[in-house]
Amino acid sequence: MGQEEEKFGYKGGYGLELIVDLKGCNLSDLSKEKLQRFFVELCDLIKMTRHGEPFYWEDTSDIPHLRGISGFQFIETSNVVCHPLPMLNAVYLNIFSCKSFNTDDALKYCVEFWGAISEVHSVIPRT
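^ S-adenosylmethionine decarboxylase, sequence as received from the core. Prediction below:
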């Protein structure tokens, strides 16, 4: 496999997506600043270049379990999306990149950062 193939793509595919559902998280201190720290530290860990500042959306609807602050971070090779839901003590994450990354390291960091009691995840090669 050539150097370019090792750097970009995953086993000849277009990319790799890590989908993570975290439960039992303590989100009492959820804020845009905490989400910012999450994106910066995660991207540094998995060696992804962030593009610009994250975008945030705060749900203040009448649907209590959806209330919270979500964030979206563009990276050079795609994006990281984070949906913390305080009422459910849950965080839902997607990390997608056409540059390969260590999904085990990313998963471990996410669990520790959000203080999750349990996690369910999938790793999907994008073709």
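The two ends are 17 Å apart (CA to CA).
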